[in-house]
Design brief:
By secondary structure, the chain is α/β, with parallel strands linked by helices. The protein contains 12 helices and 8 strands. It has a single domain, classed as 3-Layer(aba) Sandwich (Rossmann fold). Helices cover about 45% and strands about 20% of the residues. An 8-stranded mixed beta sheet has the order 1-2-4-3-5-6-7-8, with helices on both faces. Helix 5 runs antiparallel to helix 7. It is globular.
């Protein structure tokens, strides 16, 4: 059941289930808290699991045309304050990982563990920044086609065949994202800073989940990043959508991670 709070006059939607260690699940770009539907029931058997719709996604409102990682992190903080949660484990998929890092940078004392799931503490390179700027111009006139193309590019040819149903459902959720939500989050990602140091200088538990055939994040660069930031790694054989392509393996990995935080 979804609940909500008001943050700077914007509605922030979230769910809160289970008891125990607080685990905060943060979805990726063009996703929402429904991406965790197969994960939450398993984790909430022995943990308190909070899934939050980021600004401009799911049932949460937009707040201007730039949703910076810091602004997203403030919404996480507002929900946790509302729920009176003082320490938690953060698990962020893609964009959600960038948000988790921004939160951890400001509140390291509140973090028991941080998992970057198909995500990175590196900033965008210049090519990626240019692509995001171009996309924000194009999206206003080609929304549906661009969303379809973006989602298709997250899966390899084999995964597109195997997970047709799941891809279709995820695409339907993505198409509910307002244009303003797309632009604001994409711009926030474009201007985000490098946060390698958040992982390096803090001693909370760190995990980077890598897809060996991730079309978005270079597999080899992710391994270099993990070594440089003293983060543990788990490697799945597929792409960017571990919650779809490696569901059971992901559940097992996350349970172990939470247990050892």
């Amino acid at each position: 059941m979804q609940k909500s709070i008001t943050f700077k006059n914007a509605n922030i939607s979230f769910s809160d289930v289970g008891k125990g260690t607080a685990v905060v699940l943060i979805h990726g770009f063009l996703e929402n808290s429904t991406m965790w539907n197969k994960i939450t029931p398993q984790l909430s058997k022995s943990n308190r699991v909070i899934s939050i719709d980021l600004l401009g996604h799911g049932k949460s409102d937009c707040l201007g045309y730039v949703h910076s990682m810091e602004l997203f992190a403030e919404t996480i903080e507002a929900v946790l304050k509302h729920l009176r949660i003082k320490k938690c484990i953060l698990i962020g998929h893609s964009l959600g990982g960038y948000v988790a890092l921004a939160f951890a940078e400001k509140h390291p004392q509140k973090i028991k563990g941080l998992c970057l799931m198909n995500s990175t503490s590196n900033e965008d390179d210049e090519e990626r920044k240019a692509l995001r700027a171009k996309a924000n111009t194009m999206i206003q006139n080609n929304f549906t086609n661009m969303i379809r193309m973006s989602f298709a590019n997250l899966f390899g040819p084999k995964s597109k065949e195997i997970y047709q149903k799941e891809l279709k459902l995820a695409l339907q959720e993505a198409l509910q994202t307002p244009v303003q939500g797309y632009i604001a989050a994409n711009e926030g990602m474009r201007i985000r800073s490098n946060r390698n140091d958040v992982l390096v200088k803090n001693d909370f538990k760190k995990l980077i989940i890598v897809g060996k055939n991730d079309p978005v994040l270079d597999y080899k660069l992710s391994l270099v990043e993990a070594k440089k930031t003293n983060a543990e790694t788990v490697i799945f054989p597929n792409g960017h959508m571990s919650h779809i392509e490696n569901t059971q393996g992901l559940i097992t990995v996350l349970k172990q991670f939470i247990k050892h935080c």
